Model the fold of this input.
Amino acid sequence: MTTLLDPGSPPVVADRQRRPRSVLLYRARHSPTLMIGVSVTLGLVLTAVLAPVVSPYQPDHQDLYNILSGFSSKHLLGTDELGRDLLSRVIYGARIAMAVAVPAVLLAMAAGLIIGLIAGYFGGGTDQVAIVGMDAVQAFPAVILALALLAVLGPSLRNVVIVIAVALAPGYARVVRAMTLAAKQNQYVEAELSLGVSTTRLTAYHLLPNIAPPLFILIAMDMPSAIAIEAGLAFLGLGVPPPSPDWGALLADGFTYVLISPWAILAASLALIVVTVGFTMLGEALRDVLDPKLSGVRGVSRLMPRAR
Amino acid sequence: MTGPPVSIEGPVTVPLLRVEDLEVVYYTEAGALPALSDVSFEVGRGEIVGVVGESGCGKSTLGAALLRLLPPNGALAGGHVFVEGRDVAGLSRGELRSLRGRTVSMVFQDPLTSLNPTFTIGQQMIAAQRAHARDHESKSELRRRVAEALTRVGIPDAAQRIDSHPHEFSGGMRQRVMIAIALLHEPSLLIADEITSALDVTLEAQILKLLAEINQTHGTAILLISHNLGVIAEVCKRVVVMYAGRTVEEGDVMSIFDDPLHPYTRALLAAVPSREQRGVVLAAIPGRVPSLLALPVGCKFADRCNHARDVCREREPAFLAHGERRIRCFIYDDGLARADRPVATPGTVAP
Amino acid sequence: MTPAQHGDPVTTDQQSGAVTPARQGDVLLRVRDVRTYFRDRQGIIARLSRRHTGQVQAVDGVSFDVVRGETLGLVGESGSGKSTLARTILGLIPATSGSVTLDGREVLTLRRRQWRPVRRRMQMIFQDPHSSLSPRFRVSFLLNEPYVVHHVPQQERSTVDELLEMVGLSDEQADKYPHELSGGQARRVSIARALALHPDLLLADEPTAGLDVSAAASILNLMKDLARRLGLTYVLITHDLNVVGYCADRIAVMYVGQLVELGPAELILGRPKHPYTHALLSCAPVPDPHLNQGHLDNVLGGEIPSPHDPPSGCRFHPRCAYADGLCEEQVPELEELGGGELVACHHWRHIDFDDAAAVLQPQARSGTT
Done:
């Protein structure tokens, strides 16, 4: 590869666009955070997909001889008040978490992408309307907003997804808008326009690819938010309707019997914590790998053999 | 080593800046890059010396290396930088601090990124003064000195402008502010790294005039780094030509521009477009500066040089004295058998 | 079209007066009294308080012709409005008023879709060699894009290799991304892209900016060569007077949105009439230390004023050594001097830049060769 490295400016902090692909791989391979993040994410996906295989019981199988039991060889995490195996419920809970979080985040991203592109590209009045709209949505705490909307729409899996998407969309719209504004400043946008390309082609071919990378980071960071909002709604009884083994519902049920058996709370909390930390690490690692500038000189020196 | 003439009798005159076989390496993901190697030159007191070369020749690295301002992955890997006879590599943090600013100061191409946008020019200049405050001077005293410094670099109404923020100054004025800051402690040497490159010809001329005036009235020596041969010709007394991280020719500005000896220097001069060359095909140098990742073995310019012989590709010529000048080229290497030497055929490279 | 246009009926626009005499050949691009004003960018509070209700007059009544096959150099400091003018001509920035005709066809009134066929005939090369290429596509994609965008039938397209060859690049470059190219190579790709549609007119905004001396030289050689081979017409926008001196046939000098002098390159460079042109020329650094003796003594002071609030009368008067009360009050008209030269200065007849001609005169360089 004949990348001309200009010694005047150190190549490490070179422009994002000027980075050979191999450097990305190098950074990825040397980032333990990324490894942990990827493992947890993969673990969650596998657990959700393989739930029937890996879980010892059906989530609604009732072992009425063992109600609210602690851990035993039969029930590794104990049982709930109906004698259902908690481990199985946590495992099946991963399915619900994914079933809500993935479509909700994708929907939020799609909506944010459209709003952000339009606002950033056209600017002016359109932009101001979009900004005010986003501010209005973001003025409410996500859970409160979701609660209010759910109260109107009624709880169901579909509505939970929609509600979470609404709460998360402004974040995407903001990032996309800012990125569009920045990308528009690039001279190639003017060059393409002077060539005669249409707005659609300009957006699809020349703006989107440059906006996309930070969105991956945002997706990773938003997955735990979506799961947490969903669990919060379920905890309040507005989530996916029972008897689905939802983590939030597990927490709520466990809360009732916390003095008799804390296992349910422990199991569901642990699941939430691991998933949240995992996704956050994935997001942060992605950020470092995709954009070393954000991680500062510290990040550079960590990845670089030091001089002398 | 045929160094520059040093008087043996009496007190040895120590040049203000003396760079000897300087080597700088950048450690990168792609490997260690030899950004500078075998760089040698001197700057005498009160002298204006220009450093020229294409981008990627190590000009800016050189400026940063002189003050040990290299980025974290860069390191001085060999050679010496003597400022007033003291080796910069051996200085402690405190000594380095007093060296930067007091003895040697630096101005960069982009003044906007060198100034803090949230503070006024006055605040920043007072802070810069405090960093080296001699004794406890009152604030009004410091302000007065700042205003004086701004007036000195030709900023009108300095006493009022002192409370303006950087964005309230135009590009040319910001560059003047940077020069004023650099001159606060009356350094002996000012390193100016492409300071006029972002400016229009008129502002460029104004800044160059200012540099010439500073040099004359305060005797400040200036190391002017520029890719623009016109700029160098305008104010410098001596020139150092760099190529691929090496010094290739050094000498008096008149003789270098009148009679460039190194094929690279000749080619550079020949490539400048001018009115006199209308209708003539410009003599562009074929190829490009070699990547630091894949430097050729012998002379780094051999691949682009139309005098290159076998010897040029086998080993690298040394930086040798040739009359009043120093040149890194086998054409002028008397230690080499005449038959092996490439010959400068007059008229083949020159415009 | 006949060469002489003195008193031609073209000047229906009032007070645009300035008609550029096209010496020979036909006029490809005609620019008449073009104005490009921007509204000041202000926040809501500032707008409500109405403290500034300003306009930025980036281009303020510029008229000139570009003759087929010539190279017109457009020079001036940054802030003179030369880049805005180019973008206005190309329809990238809406003009406030005026007329631009390409081969006799008005383009400023065109709607978005109608621009397309015009764009095929008029292309622009933008300043930064790297950032004017979309970063995520290979050279081959970028070179094909003009054809895709304009739905050019397959048999009328040049191949990527042909385009690369035309600008002196090898076919290996086709698979590279812009960041893998050197500045000079990226510049060549931009040129190839602009030429893919066989335009008549190429506007080049600082084509040598950001390039090393040598790369710049080879780009200029290429541009000259292409002009000869393809019969191209250039509008060359630059602040580098060496570049203009080397390749422009005629030179137009702009100052704060207006033309101050226009004429054949030889005349403008040899005997400038306008004090601003003279000042620009004497500031230009020349790589010859002999010529620079005392060169910096009469450097043009001050800075170019903001087009937001241009000076009264002659816009150059605050910086002009020859200005008097008249210059302060009255705007000088562009005056025809014959020989295709136009100048907007009240006093050009009486100004003698004594050794002005000596400034760019070659001397003592003969020993170099």
Observations:
- The radius of gyration of chain C is 22 Å.
- Confidence is low (pLDDT under 50) at residues 1-24, 356-369 of chain C.
